[in-house]
Amino acid sequence: MDLKEEHLLGDQVNSHWYYQAKLDALTAMVKGVPATEILDIGAGSGYFSKALLTRTAATRATCVDLGYPADRDETVAGKPIAFRTSLDRSAADLVLMMDVIEHVEDDVGLVADYVGKVAAGTRFVVTVPAFMWLWSGHDVFLEHYRRYTLAGIEAVLAKAGLTIEKGAYFYGAVLPLVAGVRLAKQLTAPNAAPESDMRRYSPLVNSLLYGVCKAEVAVMGLNRLGGTSALVRAVKR
Asked: In terms of DSSP H, where are the helices of the chain?
């Protein structure tokens, strides 16, 4: 989770439709993966790791983020979770990169670096923003270098030494809405200061958006056509 967006959402972070739906998609993506230790890269608050410690049989997690002021240790659901600014090696069998690699210039290099830190058989789940034609002030505000097609992110992971297991687009149901909003902004305020599209919503609107995206999770694996995010699961052989 991006720390900038966490600041914007405040106490609605854990209930916001976007992150709730992404967590459901992540949970579906790791279903059947016998993970016991999670390594969460660019983890921010650790939202996804904390949730997986609660939802799955994973027994521990390590969150890595350059934004942490200091290393610290906590527990979630009685399980240890460590927060670190760097890491040399890891015994993790599940690595998360949730909206991370679009923030670095050398995306292949970043993934390859962590591929080298874990053992063969380790799974990676990577999410990235989809389609450069959706590029907007939102991406500039969050300091993105690029957005990806599904084939594009799969190629990056393959170059980094991973074997693709499955991939899909997500948030396809809200793609027309997002595209419309961004096009309208480009036409009406082309010189506006960059800002995040992430907003707080009323409970009703939040529930409606979450319900639409939650329903999409069931058929997500069939969607290689479009969405605002791309998700890929891969493995180190």
From this structure: 3-9, 17-29, 47-55, 107-115, 137-141, 150-159, 175-188, 203-217
